[in-house]
Amino acid sequence: MAKRHLIECLLFAGVFLGAEASIGAQDDQTSIRVNVNLVQLNVAVTDRKGDYVTGLRPQDFMVTEDRIPEKVATFEAGGEPTLSLSGAAAPGSGPGGQSAVEDGQTSGQASSGDPVPAPGSRFSDANVFILFDTSNYMYRTFVYAQDAIADFIRSLQDANKVAFYSYSRDLSRAAPLTSDRRQVLRSVRGTVAGDNAALYDCLLMTVKDAARITGRKVVVVFSNGPDNASLVPPEDVAELAQSTGTIIYMVSTQEAQLEPISTAVFERMSKATGGKAYFAKSWKDETKAFASIRDDLSHLYFLSYYPQANPNHGWRTITVKLVGKELQSYHVRTRDGYRLQQTKASQVNSVALGSSDPKPESDPKPEN
Question: What are the distances in angstroms from CA 125 to CA 214, 275, 285, 310?
Fold first, then answer.
């Protein structure tokens, strides 16, 4: 009798534990989802002399994500109207029918059918965040740097939205994202130099702000020296920028270039996001650097795609190549990957287009 009672207890326990495990597994499947959005790429193509190559079409590009070919959904060359390509995979084509979006790559194959013109979307629609070093490194060249930044802001087209931030130990959001140039310029003139430099901490917060914005995002940093106060490593900043499709351009003076570590970090961070690093020896070189950035932005190709099914839920490597023997001598510059983000099911819809980072609830909402 005792033996029979023991067997009944064990069977009951097995049924109970099995049911609990089933419920737990079911919860795991429904509470976490892969966040997927349209992947956007900014691509620069230059020849051996460093001159920009124009006139390329969608079929000239081949993009892979973890070696998986992708189909281009939209294509834009410079300021031309955006082409919407038929036959591109629609959202929800990822594993299990989930939407598969992250910053990714574009397909080198033009989809079947002719490109169909879509509403124009020029780079003048981009959101440009300017981050200005106001640390104690800036005392001697402060006014010259202000002049170079002010000229850069004036050179941006009226349709651009610009935010001006400054940093020393802390970040100051002096002018939230706005189309009002006068407000931004007043903020530039109102900055003063002061504390130690926490560049990477403040740049990380700037990238988080940019990640909340739908569309193209650019961060232009002016730094006059190395970072001596940050808590976060530059690798974290670069990865977030890559995973949110944010281009980082670094403009620095020879003060930062005197420190080999800072030079290497600035170059590596900008290259990883598809941007460039400049080291100015004089205020005239600073002005030239900002003019070069403006020129670079106006010559970018914009490609987007919906990622194909991919079991990799971590870092995904992006490769963009040109198709055709006559194009092989050209150099292609874009970001080299992104990390797939996982969010709670309730957060999936809060992610901005082209961004894999959920909207931070604690950050102030930028102006439109």
Answer: 11, 18, 27, 31
Q: Please, where are the H alpha helices in 274-352?
A: 283-298
Question: Taking Cα atoms as reference points, which of 295, 296, 280 lies closest to residue 145?
Answer: 280
Closest by alpha carbon to 271, among 237, 298, 288, 248?
248
Strands 331-333 and 39-46, by their bridges, are antiparallel
Give me the CATH code for the 34-360 domain, please: 3.40.50.410
pLDDT of residue 140: 73
Domain ranges of the chain: 34-360
- Model pTM score: 0.76
Q: At what angle do helices 234-243 and 199-211 cross, to 10 degrees?
A: 10
pLDDT digits (tens, 9 = 90+) for 8-59: 544 344 433 344 444 444 445 544 455 557 899 999 999 999 999 999 999 9
Name the helix (H) or strand (E) containing 191.
none
